[in-house]
Specification:
Elements lengths: L2 H9 L4 E9 L2 E6 L12 E2 L1 E4 L6 H13 L7 E7 L4 E8 L14 E5 L1 H6 L1 E4 L4 E4 L2 H14 L1
């Protein structure tokens, strides 16, 4: 790789996303991502949320994404962490859900369901909608385990 290409890669900002850890009574609501090879972690369980629009703050972005993906946003979301890897910068918010799964409208993804801490530790979960066990995305699992540990 030439030094010009290396400099361009270093100066190119990573995509930024805002994601939400949503919980109720010790369980965590997760989204089964679409089987789309153009997205990170296709067919894996992950957080609700997504890419920020130009000029959008992470807090505004996570609120917008939750309304788009669930037709609902908790009244209080608190920043938990900012997590960066080689692909993306993730702003992680957390909030208590006061709705049942039946009251939410899935606007994106294949399924949604509650994960127990045991599901998160194991790293997978069955989806009744597609009749398959699917893995939890690796960064999502790591972030959740850190969240549970910090709350504990």
């Amino acid at each position: 790789m030439t030094s010009d290409v290396q400099a361009e890669l270093i100066s190119t900002p990573l995509p930024t996303v805002a994601l939400a850890i949503l919980y109720h009574e010790g369980k965590f609501l997760m989204q089964l991502r679409d089987d789309n090879p153009a997205i990170l972690h296709p067919g894996h369980w992950g957080f609700f949320g997504g890419h920020l629009e130009p000029g959008e703050t992470a807090e505004t972005g996570v609120q917008r994404e939750l309304v788009e993906e669930l037709s609902y946003c908790p009244p209080v979301l608190t920043l938990f962490d900012c997590h960066q890897d080689t692909y993306v910068t993730r702003y992680i918010y957390h909030g208590q859900l006061d709705k049942t799964v039946g009251e939410l409208v899935l606007g994106e993804g294949m399924d949604l369901d509650w994960f127990t801490p045991e599901d998160i530790e194991r790293g997978d979960r069955y989806s009744a909608k597609i009749n398959e066990v699917r893995p939890l995305g690796k960064p999502h699992r790591e972030i959740l385990l850190n969240f549970i540990k910090s709350a504990g």
